[in-house]
Prior knowledge:
Growth Hormone, Chain: A; 69% helix
Amino acid sequence: xTPAAQNLLVSLVLVQLARPDPNPSATTIAQTYNLARxxxxxxxxxxxxxxxxxxxPFSDPGFSAVGLRWAGVPVAPLPFLAWRTMGDAExxxxxxxxYAAFDAxxxxxxxxxxxxxxxxxxxxxxxxxxxxxxxGLLANLTSIMATMGIPAPPAADSLSxxxxxxxxxxxxxxxxxxxxxxxxxxxxxxxxFTLLKAKYPA
Length: 202
């Protein structure tokens, strides 16, 4: 660039920095929506890959255990009216708490599968990617909440060392619940950010 062009570029940057942003969180909201849409497809593939790697009964056609729960794993389903009447702060706070828990649970499931199915390289890679993107989602939520003046919940480790001391079948069940509820939460986050994106257009 010529000196004149460089000076013009610097001037434009300074003007942008000096101009107040009426919706400082709008760009991050749009980015988070796009990330959630990406995770939506990936979480479906993760659940299917997880089930196929576990053997019977998990890999059996039509397998479903919707009533199976595991302590500490955030549950996504919520009646429509209860979800729709939530405020932005409650939606974001609940999402933050859920993904903070999934950050720990996805690591635990990775550890379990590295021992139970060390040859499942595709599944291990998908679990690692899901955890990395979940951390990105948490960073975006932290930024949005800070901009809106919503305090982030204190970090809490929802797992204890005893979580590693369960049998192989129980670990497979736990991994299934984690992957299933993670998929449900991603779907819920897409719906949350569809509303937020309309409210705070970039």
